[in-house]
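--- STAGE predict ---
source: upstream dedup step, 1 unique chain passed
mode: sequence only
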Amino acid sequence: MNYYHHGATIAACARTSKWIEATQLLTVMAQNEFESNRIAFNASMSAWEKVGEWEQSLQLYAAGVQRMVESNAVTFNAAISACQKAKKWEKALQFFSMVSQKGLESDRISFSISITAWEKAVEWERELMIFREIAQTHQAPEA
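--- STAGE serialize ---
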């Protein structure tokens, strides 16, 4: 079994809300010195985010950074969503800002999650800022 198999298994665990198993597999990968890949980290982050364990999700993000796993829009979307669900609006904004700082493009999911986060926080100024960024990139938010 290689890291692609582990990554696929972790993704399957995430889709079925088996967040503990996903994290355990990620740990096994590290213990067996398999290269931890972005798919495995993203799937694990998403699994924890989906069950409202935002701190676990962000800890995985930090572990990925430490292991130099390259982040992408999916990574940041999981982090933004975890923060949004935990009502951590400031952290959500930090992760949203990191997307462009890392030279990545925000996608429709990034915009939608961010708008929802600030809307719930009654942060209309930030919501307006996101809409302006959407207009500049010509992307429409998903309904």
